[in-house]
Design goal:
two-stranded parallel sheet; Molybdenum Cofactor Biosythetic Enzyme, Chain A; alpha/beta; six-stranded mixed beta sheet
Length: 182
């Protein structure tokens, strides 16, 4: 029988305006964002049988992001999740940093919300750029990180629970959101 240890994941929040959730009792300055995605993702990792650590928030600075990823991989983590910085704005450095450090496999997916997800390999380890918007972060985790965690443990991913529902009104879809693989 094969035995697998729990996969270890480092969660690296990024952003110049983010404040750690443990500072929630303090008065937040205007424009500050309370960083809660890290704890949500850590809980989701635990539900999948993994162990998670949440690093300090890293400023939107390519060198600092690279340092944090390098330290995480050198620290023995099997998987690194970088929260925010994965879109296309001037402060979104995650894709460029990961391309420089290893192989940028995917930048942008046809999943909404969750479109700016980044998938990369650095030193033979998966590194995932998770969008900063909380719902996008949860969807990116569900679609990309969850399957990785189960695979790392040699476990078949459990079926996602579904329910049947009847929509009480018309639900319009965006014209450009059709399945591109049809």
């Amino acid at each position: 029988m094969d035995v697998f240890r729990k996969p270890r994941a480092m969660i690296i929040p990024t952003g110049n305006r983010d404040r750690a959730a443990r500072t929630a009792a303090e008065v937040l300055r205007p424009g500050a964002i309370l960083e809660v995605n890290g704890q949500v993702l850590a809980s989701m990792i635990a539900e999948c049988g993994g162990e998670a650590a949440i690093g300090e928030t890293v400023p939107d600075n390519p060198a600092r992001i690279k340092e944090a990823v390098t330290a995480s991989l050198n620290g023995g983590y099997d998987l690194v999740l970088i929260i925010a910085g994965s879109s296309a704005g001037s402060e979104d450095h995650t894709p460029a940093v990961l391309a420089e450090m290893g192989e940028l496999l995917v930048h942008g997916v046809t999943v909404m919300p969750g479109k700016p997800t980044v998938l990369a390999a650095v030193n033979d380890h998966p590194v995932v750029g998770i969008p900063g918007f909380p719902v996008s972060a949860a969807i990116a985790f569900r679609e990309f990180v969850r399957p990785m965690l189960y695979r790392m443990q040699g476990i078949v991913q459990p079926e996602t629970e579904t329910i049947e529902a009847v929509i009480g009104r018309k639900l319009p879809s965006r014209r450009d959101s059709r399945n591109m693989f049809e």
